[in-house]
Each structure stands twice: as C-alpha cells, then as structure tokens.
Amino acid sequence: MQFRTKARAVDLLGKGQIADLPTAISELWKNGYDAYADNLNSVLYTQGYEDVTSPFLTIADDGKGMSRSDIQNKWLILGTDFKSRDTKIEKGEETLWKAPRPVMGEKGIGRLSVSYLGSPMLMLSKKKGHPLQALYFDWRILENYNLFLEDVVIPLASIDKKEDFLTELKLLKEEFLSNFYSDDKEEQKRKDELWVDQIDLKKSIVQSTGSIELPNFFREELVEPLLGDKENIHGTKFIIFEPDEQFQLLKNWSDKRNNADDEDIETVEDIRTGLVGFYNEFKYKVEDAPISTSFLIKDKTGSRDFISSNAFFSNDDFDNCDHLIDGKVDEYGTFTGNIRIYNETISDYKYRPNKPANQKTSYGSFKIKLGYVPGKNQSILEDEVFKYYDDKLRSFGGLYIYRDDLRVLPYGRPNNDFLQFEERRSKSAGFYFFSYRRMFGYIGLTRQKNWKLKDKAGREGFINNSAFRDFKIHLQGLFLDLAKEYFQTDANQPIKKSQLEKLKDLKASEKEEQELVKKERKKFKQYLQNLPEKLKSIKKELSDVSSSLDQTLNSAEVPYQNIKAEFRKIDQLIAEFRNTKPQEPKRFKMNSREREKFEKLEELYDDFGKNLEDVDSLRTNALGRIEEGKLLEEYRNKFESYKDLLSEITENSKQNLKKAFDHIDKEFISTQNSYSEMLFEVYENNLPKKVSRKNIQDSLFNLETAFNDLRRKYQNLLDAKSDHLLRMNFEIDDDALIGFYKDRYEKALQELGDFKDLAQLGIAVEIINHELNSMYSQLNTSISEISTYLKDSKDARKHFKYLKNSFEHLDTKYQSLNPLYRRSRRTKRYISGDEIKEYLNNFFEESFRDEKIKFTTTQSFLDSQIFSFESVILPVFVNVINNAIYWLRSQEKPEIVIDYADGLMIISNNGPKIKDSRLEEIFELFYTRRPKGRGIGLYLSKDNLRTVGLDIKATNDSNFNRLNGATFLIGKNLND
Q1: Which residues, at least 6 apart from 427, have a Cβ–Cβ distance to it below 8 Å?
Q2: In the beta sheet, which residues pair with residue 908?
Q3: Burial environment of residue 74 by CB neighbours within 10 A (0 to 12, 13 to 18, 19 or more)
Q4: Helix, strand or coil for residue 214?
Q5: Any bridge partners for residue 296, and if so which?
Q6: Are 317 and 371 in contact (CB under 8 A)?
Q7: Cα distances (Å, whole numbers) of residue 213 to 166, 174, 179, 210, 238
Q8: Is 523 exposed, middle or buried (0-12, 13-18, 19+ CB in 10 A)?
C-alpha cells in the first residue's frame, strides 16, 4: 500500500497555510531573493489604466529564473529539499556571479502562496541559456475534494519568439481545460463524475479561463522583456488575472488618495505595514540597500508606489530620536551596549538575565537597535521633527525581526506586540514606560546563529518552542530592567528625570512665552482693526477745527482769544495723530497677512500726514493775523499745553503700572496658595493611620523631606520672579529685546536647516553632472544613428524630427548651465559686458520673446569688463533678470536695460518700484513676495559676490534708477 494525495492537500498547504496578502507576497519575494534577484516588485493593473478591462496582478523578480527541467523537477515537486541541504553554495552561474546568500525558503511550499493571491495564474520564467517557460493554472481546481494530484494536468510550454506567445497561451489554456473535457466519451463521463458535486466551481474556473483578455501592452511590457538569449535576460513573473478582492481596496485607496472608508483604511494600512521593510532598511540608507522592493498601483492617473521606501524608516532616523538602545545579546543572553537618553549616553550598560551565568541560551546571539520617541510632553524634539517621527510611528511603529536582513513576519506589524509592551503599560505607564507604537527598530537574527528560532508554516511568527519562550522572557527582562534603571518615573538613575525637569521648565517658559505672544498677537490684530477708525476720527476732528479757524480768519478782526482754543485743539490732535503712527509688534514677527494689513495702514497714515500741510498753512496764516504781543502768549500757552500732554501720558502710565503691580501681587498670592495646597496634600498623605512612635517619626521625616523639596522649589520660583523685577532696566525695552533675539534665533534655525538642504542639493547636482555629460553623449550618438534603422514612413520621419528638435533644445539649455557649475570657478578671468549680454540673450531667448520684453544694453556696458569667475557673476544676472521678467508682466511695454557707470554694473527695469523699506530686506534668505518664490536667489547672489570681493544692492537713487522701476547695482564698496 502507498499514500495517495488528494489535490486539496496542495490547496491546504498553499492558501490554508498563508495568513494574509502581505505574507503571500513576501513568500514569493523570498523565493526571488533565493534566486539572487536584486529587484522584487508587484504591480496591480486596474481598470482605466491603458486598455485594461479587468484588474490583474503581477509579482516579478530579476532572479536566475527556471528552465523547463527546474519547473518539472523542483517547482512542481512539493517539499523539495534542495534549499535546505547543507551543501556549500559557491559564487558562479547559479548565483548570477553574486556572493552566496543565506537561504530563506526551506520547506518547499512557499511557492504555493501565489494561490492565495487569486486565480487563474500565468507563470513566466526565463533562465540564462534556456527558452522562456510559460505555465498556466487555476488554483481553484485544487478545491475539488474528489481529485487526486495525479488527476490534475498542469500545462507548460516553451516560447522562443514573441510571435508565438498568443498561440502558446491559447494552447496552454486548451490543455488546462482538458482537466474538465475530453473527446473520449468514457473519459468525459469520468471527468463529469469528479465534478458532479461542484458544478458551480467548475463553471467559474472554465469561464475565467475563457474570458481572459490581454491588454494591448501585455506582450510588449510583460512578455517580451523575458524573451531572447542575451546574458542579462532572466527572471520570473507571476500574472494573476483575477486578484483577491482585497486588492480592490488598494485600488480604492489609490483612487481616493487615502480618503477611503475608515474600515478600508485599516485593512489597507495593515497590508501596507506587512509589505514595507522587506529588507532591513534600518541598517541602510534607501539608496544603499542591496535589495529593492516596490508595489505599484497603476490606474487612469498613472502609477504610484504603495510601499514607497521614503515612507519607511532608515538608519538616519536613529540619529535624532529621543532615546536609543543599541547593542548585542551574546550567546549567554547578556545584553551589552549603549543607551542614549535624550542628550546623554550610557556606554557601558549591561543586562544579564536570571539564569546560570555560564549556561548558553538556546536562541543564540543577536543584534538589537531600537529608537524611541515618547509622547509630545516627554519629547525634546522640535515640533517639525517630532511630527516627522510621529507620522512614521503611527504607520510603521514597532519592533521588527529580521533573519539575515530579510523580514520575519508578522513582527513589526501593529497587532504583533509579541513582547506585550502595551499590556504592561496599561497597568502603569509610569512604571513600565515602553510603548510598542512609540518605538522603531529591529532585532537582527541569522540562520546560522539562531537556528532554533523556527518559523511556523505561512510565516505566522516563530514556533512557541523553548528557544522562543526564553527569547521572549529575556527580552522582556531587558526592557523591564531598562525601565527600572533609567526610564520609569522613579528610576534608579535620575538621568531621564533630570533632563525631563529641565525640559519641563523650558517648555513651561516656552508655553508662557507662547501665551504672551498669543495675547500680543490678539491685541495687535485688534490694533490693526481699530487704527483706521481712529485715524478717520482724528481726521474729522481736525477738519472741523480747521473749518472753524478758517471761518474766524475770514472776519475783519482776529482777536487772539477767538482762535486760542482752536490752536490748542490743533496741537492736541496733531500730537494724537503722531502717536497713532503704525508700530510693528516687538515680541513677534508678523505673518504675511498681518504684514499686508500693516503696510496698508502705513500708506493710510502717510496719505493722512500729507493733509497736515494744509493745517500748518492755515495755522501760519492765523499766526500772521494776530497781534505781535499776543504771539509771546501763544508761545507760553503752547509750552503749558505740551506740559499737560506729558502729564497725561505720565498719568496713563501710572495707571498701567498700578494694574501691573496688582497683577504681580495676585500672582505671588496664587503661587503661595498653590504650594500651601501641595504641602497640605503631603500632610494628609503622611498622617499616620495608626498612632505609634515609629509611624509618627516616619511621618515627621516624610513631612520634613517633602517640605524641604517644596521650599527649595518655591524659593527658586519666587527668587526668579523677584530677581527679574529687580533687574528691570527702564532704559531697555524688554519686549523689543526678546523679539529681537527670538527673531535671530528662529532665523538661525531656519537658515541652518535650509543650508543643509541647499548644500545637499548642490552636492547632488555636482555629482550627477558627470553622469549627465555621459548620458547626453550617449543620447546624441544614439539619436544620430537611429535614423538609419527607422522605417521610411511619414510618421517615423515626423516623430524622429520631433525627438531630435526636443533633444537639441534640451541640450542647448543644459550647455547654458555649464558656466554655473562650481568647477568653472577654477579659472578667474576678465568677463566682458558683451559676453554677459550674449549669455543672457541665449538663456532668456524664449522668455524675452514670449513676454515681449525689450532687452537692451548700453555701449558702456558692452565695453566694460569684470575680473572674476563665470560661476559667480552669471548666476547673479540670471537671478535678477529672472525676477524682473516676473514683475514686468503687468507692464504694457516691459523693458530691461543694463548700463555701466562709475565702476558699477546697473540692471534696471520699468516694473514696480521697490519700496525704500525693502531695499535691504529683499536680500534676506527666504524673503519673497512671489506666490511660488523660494526667496533664495538674491540671497545667494549677494553671498556669492561677497566671496570674491563684490556686492549687489537695490537702489531708488534717481542717478541710477532711470526707468523708475527696480534697479540693482553690482560692484565694489557699495556701502561707501
């Protein structure tokens, strides 16, 4: 007797052993990794993309692929042991001449995970030196519990030419349908009996096979890349024509841009977290990872990567997190490594589990590296940095496990807190501290050292054997010890606590400052709203009193007593007007909307000020009409009037000071009450429940200890307040000083971050320049030669012409950038105005033409010379003229002129004039008034010119600004 195997056994080993979609895809990617692939990808083609009528899925790798013999003797034989044998693999053709890799698959059933993804399926596989193999199958046939494995026909074909593909696919489908139909009546009867209980399943399978429609691009994009005998053609591709219904959720996610139903989002994110980090990206920067994975969703709008590498963590993320645990667990279970707590590092931390010291563990040695970012209140990160980490933690936070740098599922997924961090934390967050969703990092295992940690079938985690149990217990012990020593509320080592107290003090001060700024901003907003009405009121009163004075002056005689009151009122109103001059806020910087309103107020104030000229003229006229003897009285009366105004100001300030001191007094009393309440709480908590000498002595000791701590904090708090008041200098405007330093600090932080970005961008441009040169050369050669291979047709000639013209246009633009590269700074030379003009004409040829700009240069400029670097001078002209082109769009006859005089190069245009208040401000980093401007061009121009002893400035001086628009000067000693 022998065992016989029902076909459904394969179904049970396939779909029955796979937990979910990510697991199924990961299994196929691991097989690709074992086949020495470097690129593993999945693509979901949905309706709307090109001519796709029904969605289908591809899983592909660029591994060594399979020959016909490999498919028959390995892929189609379940439980093969060729991967799990301890035969030594050597670098060669079987490894695609790459270094041997640790084997991931070992049970011989991982390939069956493709059945979980959907049916029917077409497998294409190409091995070097062998023709393309095509296998067609519908996995649902294995659900028939009447079939034995030997009853199932799996068609396989070899394809040599692209023209044969459709024919061979048709034959494959016909051969597969022979599982249901036969020309022989007796055989057909037998087949019918096998399906008599599952007629609907049979119909569904047959209908699926008959209704497969291939889009027009299918053969060209999916099949032809695997055809041919070239050495670089190899790999395997699975095409699933009716993907699992869960893939429809991914299409919804793609269509709705993450605005799908909440239930869908949860499922989609679960799939996503299972697919990201397939290779250990924690160890590498994205560009350095030896394996790349992608999952593209293609729809009517194009394609997007569902698991973009940039969204996941990288090695750089460990640098800036709040806490870091980085070390190794040796074969005895002892952890040794560095613990960074905020800004302080413990470099000699050790943890030894509770076990005999000389007894080796069953699980073996491994690496662990873990970053941690607590909640907002306990993080020292800046808001933007905290948000960066918080967003990633919400999506991908967790502790991942990798074996030989490939992820072990389901560890790292949101619902796999295998060390029970959240369960313990729910009992006491302050005691246990660690939260699974606030951490990111990995445990790095190897097949060689950790072989007793065995995966369950279907990658549902490790088998719960003694090695895994010890592994968990010792890791839990490590984190309990870390919490006890450093992280819990009352940790043995006060490193975290002391830094956190400083942080809380700093955040309290920041919060207090933020509240003050909030109040000041609210007052400023009200000030902006009220000031126009106030100016309007002053203007009306001044108009009324002026009219009264004018009427009096029209009479025959003008006694001084008759106009004395009007003079007093005019003085008072003018003083009140001067006092309403718009004042910028001192404690904070205006935002763009506030700045716009403020500038309108300035214009309103300036316009109103012009009316005072009429009032002064009227008053002068009045003074000329009164008796000379009365003029001295007017002088004395004006002096008394000014004294009254000073007294009024003093009285108002005294009232404000009184309010301030009342507020300070209340604040001191409130602070005293607060600390008295804390002391009373200590008193209540330490009252002895049972009166005895020992209990009372303990209570006395606790009360004294608590009071000393409270007294110290209370004294420090009051001293700080008192010292601040005593140190106050009425000659110094504290708000203005604080505002000045805040502004400087914020600018410094912003500049530092943006300088890093700019430097990185500059370095990247320099690096790729050599490659661009090479690529341009290749393109130029290829375009020149391709014409000989084109079909002699009208369409071919037309499209080739378009291609050549586009390339020549692109090449012209690229060549115009050459002088801007830093390498050209190696040569300092005389650059003539004529050269600069020619360069600018070439660079802005289209812009000048499209915008109808008249661009001219004077002869003195053409004859001028400047001794410097092309890479410094030319970008300055480009920046200035590029800005001018934007601002000239509102002009009927836009014009740009470049002149030369007194050793200065002068760039002028007839666009809007730059306000005097902004002549220097426009050179500040990130200052811009353009809607999509970056505000770096003029800043960099000025900065670069200064490195070579030159400078640039804007001017409204009529000697230079001859077009009455914006004018810039370039030269030496511009501030003299």
Answers
A1: none
A2: 897, 967
A3: middle
A4: coil
A5: 43, 305
A6: yes
A7: 11, 15, 21, 9, 16
A8: exposed
Nearest to residue 115, comparing CAs of 242, 230, 234?
242
Q: How far is CA 927 from CA 345, 537, 832, 931, in A?
A: 40, 36, 31, 11
Q: 171-201 burial, b for 16+ CB within 10 Å, e for fewer?
A: ebbeebbebbeeeeeeeeeebeebbeebeee
φ and ψ of 590, to 5 deg: -65, 145
Neighbours of 41 (CB within 10 A): 19
Place of tokens 């933690």: 393
- The token duo for 45 is 């083609």
**Using CB atoms within 10 A of its CB, is residue 159 exposed (0-12), middle (13-18) or buried (19+)?**
buried
- Could you tell me where the DSSP H helices lie in 818-960? 833-843, 845-850, 859-863, 870-887, 937-946
DSSP 425-479: HTT-HHHH---GGGEEEEEEE-TTT-TTS-BPTTS-SB--SHHHHHHHHHHHHHH
Q: Which residues of 22-37 are buried (b: 16+ CB within 10 A; e: fewer)?
A: bbbbbbbbbbbbbbbb
**Contact between residue 815 and residue 772 where contact means Cβ atoms under 8 Å apart:** no
- How far is the C-alpha of 555 from the C-alpha of 548, rounded, in Å? 12
Selection from 929, 856, 848 nearest residue 885 by Cα: 848
Instruction: Round to the nearest angstrom and report the end-to-end CA distance of the chain.
Output: 108
Amino acid identity at 130? H
DSSP letter at 416? Answer: -
pTM of the predicted model as reported, rounded to 2 decimal places: 0.59
Please state the separation of Cα 360 from the chain's center in Å.
45
Contact 393, 437 (CB under 8 A): yes
Instruction: List, in sequence order, every residue forming a beta bridge with 532; answer none if it has no partner.
Output: none
- Length of the chain equals 976
The DSSP secondary structure of 495-516, one letter per residue, reads HHHHHHHHHHHHHHHHHHHHHH
Question: Strands 854-857 and 895-901: what pairing?
Answer: parallel
Secondary-structure breakdown of the chain: helix, strand, coil percentages, each rounded to the nearest 5: 55, 15, 30
Please, are residues 400 and 445 in contact by the beta-carbon 8 Å criterion? no
The bridge status of strand 292-299 relative to strand 302-305 is antiparallel
Q: Helix/strand/coil (H, E, C) string of 117-155?
A: HECCEEEEEECCCCCEEEEEECHHHHHCCCCEHHHCCCC
Query: What phi and psi values does residue 566 have, to the nearest 5 degrees?
Result: -65, -40
Cis status, amide bond into 120, omega within 30 of 0 = yes
Task: Scan for tokens 């697919």, then name that residue.
Answer: 275
Tokens linked to 847:
């812009």
Separation CA 350–CA 481 (nearest Å): 10
Of 968, 930, 937, 931, which Cα lies nearest the Cα of 950? Answer: 968
Distance CA 151, CA 874 (A): 78
CA 800, distance to chain mean position in Å, is: 40
**CB proximity list for 858: less than 8 A, separation 6 or greater:** 897, 898, 899, 900
Q: Quick one: CA torsion of 105, 106, 109, 114, rounded to 10 degrees?
A: 0
Q: What is the mean pLDDT of each run of 10 residues along the chain (976 residues)?
A: 60 66 88 90 89 92 91 78 59 84 67 84 92 91 80 89 90 91 87 86 91 90 84 89 86 53 70 88 77 86 75 86 95 94 91 89 95 90 85 91 90 89 89 92 93 75 91 94 89 81 65 72 80 78 72 63 67 73 75 77 76 67 58 65 72 74 76 79 78 75 74 71 60 49 56 55 50 54 64 65 61 54 58 90 84 91 87 85 87 91 90 85 76 72 82 89 90 77
| DSSP letter (8 states) at residue 690 | S
Which DSSP symbol is given to 6?
A: B
